[in-house]
Write a structure and sequence with these properties.
globular, Dihydrodipicolinate Reductase, domain 2, oxidoreductase activity, nine-stranded mixed beta sheet, oxidoreductase, alpha/beta, about 20% strand, about 40% helix, seven-stranded parallel beta sheet, single chain, Oxidoreductase YvaA (Modular protein), Epimerase_deHydtase, about 700 residues, 29 strands
Length: about 700
């Protein structure tokens, strides 16, 4: 049998994760593969994984030799590259979405017809046994007249893209709907046999790729509700309801569906599956493509098959409206006035750690505030963590603080630095030194370093800025102290520096102090702690902290000083938990006895230690085992969940600590200090949790 010559155009994460495992199993194929990428290192990595292949930088160089092309490029390149391939009579397998615009998709379909080439698409989820069963049951009429479809999918974004095409505002204003939505809306159209009529589409974009989407649509009387999120883990479920029954399931549980006959009869239908993991469902699509080229099969999924979903997606973007993000409406920045002299008005501001919780909010508030006058450059280390940041059309810069050349480029034209980035202790400390050194050489006007009140360690009572550092043995505590000490070295060298030591920062996008506890309480877990929970909870609302930092940028009176930043109310941890729970509209929390808390924490201690070792040294093989063995996967998920909801020994000590971080210096020096009451902060937090799709 003739083995075709194939070009893989784009050798990034998708190629290595989904295509390489299938292609290397094809006998004799790897010697006839061209690996095309402008990044030769990426192509070399793919060749090493394949065990063969010929590298090229331009696919045009091989069009006269190949019979098939697999296009794995950023979405906006699918159409032009496919048109050139199809125009040369080369059959194409295109990663979803087929095209960004319906007109482009139609051109591709027509070109394939004109040239007698095949146009296949990898809309993988059509291979899920569960999704195929849903379609068959709808078509059989067992559910009767369809009344509604509910589809909810959300997972924290982490795609390891080199270009960040899915979240980079420089490349597109289209985000999760163009990415995950290409699967989801295709599924809906496929189940229903056509394109629904859009009623409403809302998202969270401010000009960049959106990360949360809500869609309402209708088809033949069937009401459709879709929620998609890149910012949080949601229930990941679907439910199709008719007047004679219902079928439902978990999106990634492709081995079973739940059936309700509408008369009280409920059952679970178990399904056979040859694939144990998601990449396994890509295999039949690739194998089919090879057979199509050889003339032995028709496409499993053709370009024409997905046209309805491309049109549906486009209609959504044409009518997109912004979600009501109430906490963003309150964003403002207070500028320094009096109390010292003004340093020159900030020019470009580099924010490191801009994809993180606090750095991200500083960027957002600088962009949103009506009177903002600060041009921001957001430092991005990894695009995989930039789904939140990407919603805003701000300037970005690649920034690895261990790379002096990247630091130098990021600082070009910058006058002020807000340093929020953190990583491992070693990287954080050395990265801070690298940034300070470059800032000194560049003559940065003001360097603001975000530290933490944790540098005081286990200090009790009223703690002000004159209190000494105290190492606790905790890596986070150590790296924050060490980074501060380096800052003081560079202050002595003449770099204008201000250090902020915030207490417990809560509010929208706080994973540690807001989302984690909200998720626990919504799941009926967690509680208030007998004995432990009466320690002082020093809360500061994230917007207050961001305003304080931005307000100090052009205030010379802040230079050379360190400031504790705390909120206007000091309550106990138990009161915080109680008020957060009430803000979510939930029943009263249970009381967790001290002995029970101690026992749970003690039991989880070796599990945390072992988990850290596995994560550091063995995560890849463990994940592979979990993908293949359901029992291992279930055990890992259970253990991970228990670790999340069980406080560590450090946390129990924190909940009991009788400490108040005095912010008298900040309130006596700075013109902008925290003033958001806890009830208001929690009301905004609840609206944010609602936006994430965790509550209705």
């Amino acid at each position: 049998m003739h083995i075709p010559k194939i070009a893989i155009i784009g050798c990034g994460a998708a190629a290595q994760r989904y295509y390489v495992p299938v292609l290397r199993r094809q006998s004799g194929l790897k010697e006839r593969l061209y690996l095309v990428d402008t990044d030769r290192a990426c192509a070399e990595e793919t060749r090493a994984a394949l065990g063969g292949g010929m590298i090229r930088e331009d696919f045009h160089d091989v069009l006269h030799e190949i019979q098939g092309a697999i296009i794995l490029l950023p979405n906006h390149l699918h159409h032009p590259v496919a048109m050139d391939c199809l125009g040369a009579g080369v059959s194409v397998l295109c990663e979803k979405p087929l095209a960004v615009l319906p007109g482009h998709a139609r051109e591709m379909i027509q070109k394939a017809r004109d040239k007698g080439a095949a146009l296949c698409v990898n809309n993988t989820r059509r291979m899920f046994p569960s999704f195929r069963t849903v379609r068959e049951i709808i078509a059989s009429g067992r559910l009767g007249r369809l009344e509604s479809i509910e589809y909810v999918e959300g997972n924290v974004f982490g795609w390891p893209s080199a270009t960040g095409f899915a979240v980079n505002p420089k490349l597109s204003s289209r985000g999760i709907l163009m990415d995950l939505g290409a699967h989801v809306l295709d599924t809906i159209c496929w189940w229903l046999g056509g394109r629904p009529v859009l009623e409403e589409m809302q998202d969270d974009s401010y000009g960049g790729p959106e990360s949360v989407v809500r869609i309402r649509a209708i088809k033949d009387g069937c009401k459709i509700g879709i929620t998609l999120s890149r910012l949080s883990d949601l229930s990941n479920h679907y439910r199709v309801t008719g007047d004679r029954g219902e079928i439902s399931g978990r999106i990634f549980d492709w081995k079973r569906v739940s059936l309700d006959d509408g008369a009280g009869g409920k059952s679970v239908q178990k399904l056979s599956s040859v694939s144990r993991n998601y990449p396994g469902f890509v295999a039949p699509i690739i194998e089919n493509f090879l057979q199509v080229i050889q003339g032995r099969a028709q496409p499993l999924i053709s370009g024409s098959d997905v046209l309805d979903s491309i049109e549906f997606i486009h209609s959504c973007y044409e009518r997109r409206e912004r979600l009501d993000l109430s906490w963003d409406k309150k964003a403002w920045v207070h500028h320094a006035a009096g109390g010292g002299f003004q340093i020159r008005k900030p020019g470009k501001i580099l924010v490191t750690g801009a994809t993180g919780f606090i750095g991200g909010r500083i960027v957002e508030m600088a962009h949103l505030a009506p009177e903002a006058r600060y041009p921001i450059r957001a430092g991005v280390h990894q695009w995989s963590s930039a789904a939140r940041l990407g919603r805003f059309p701000v300037e970005t810069a690649a920034l690895d603080l261990m790379d002096p050349l990247q630091i130098e480029r990021a600082l070009e034209g910058v006058t002020h630095v807000i340093h929020c980035a953190k990583g491992s202790p070693e990287v954080t400390v050395q990265g801070t030194r690298n940034l300070l050194e470059a800032s000194l050489k560049k003559g940065i006007s003001h360097f603001i370093h975000l530290s933490t009140a944790d540098v005081y360690g286990d200090a009790a009572g009223v703690v002000d800025e004159n209190s000494p550092y105290h190492y606790t043995g905790n890596p986070y505590n150590r790296m924050k102290i060490d980074a501060e000490k380096i800052c003081w070295e560079y202050r002595e060298k003449g770099l204008p520096i201000t250090i902020f030591r915030p207490s417990i920062v809560y509010g929208p996008f706080s994973t540690s102090w807001s989302l984690r506890f909200a998720a626990m309480f919504l799941a009926g877990e967690g509680g208030i702690y007998e004995g432990y929970g009466e320690g002082r909870c020093n809360l500061v609302y994230v917007d207050d902290l961001a305003r304080t930092i931005l307000g100090a940028l052009d205030f010379a009176g802040a230079q050379g000083k360190v400031f504790n930043i705390n909120g206007p109310e000091i309550i106990t941890w138990n009161e915080y938990f109680t008020r957060l729970n009430a803000a979510l509209g939930l029943p009263p929390l249970r009381v967790i006895r001290a002995k029970r808390a101690d026992a749970a924490t003690w039991a989880m201690s070796p599990v945390r230690t072992l988990g850290g070792i596995v994560k550091t040294h063995f995560i890849k093989p463990v994940k592979l085992i979990a993908e293949r063995v359901d029992a291992v996967d279930a055990l890992m998920r259970m253990v991970e969940h228990r670790v999340k909801i069980t406080p560590s020994s450090d946390e129990l000590r924190l909940f009991a600590k009788d400490t108040v971080y005095s912010d008298a210096r900040a309130r006596g020096t700075l013109s902008c200090c925290p003033d958001t009451g806890i009830d208001q902060g929690l009301a905004d937090t609840r609206e944010w949790v609602k936006y994430l799709g965790m509550v209705s």
